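Case study: PadR family transcriptional regulator.
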Amino acid sequence: MNIENTKAQMRKGVLEFCILSVLKEKDAYTSEILDTLKNAKLLVVEGTVYPLLTRLKNDGLLNYRWEESTSGPPRKYYGLTELGKTFLTELNSTWTELSDAVNIITTKK
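Here is what the predicted structure looks like once written out:
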């Protein structure tokens, strides 16, 4: 059994929730999202995030706008739609329930 594969699958399982959570406070461009995830020690590569952002946009959870940048090409800023905010609220509830259940099971003596 490959522990690295299992750890990667666990990270992928919560990545959507984490990206939506990053965007709940303010709109952000992809590099900001990646930096926030990396600062939290959630190791993610760009090749994983870009398709996920597109899928979340296509599902109506995110929208985006282009903004000029003083240090390069225009940047695509992502933000939550109303549907995205509702979806994130549901994910928060589910995460709390799941986390509580896992903690009960894994901390049993």
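For the exam, be able to explain this: The radius of gyration is 16 Å.
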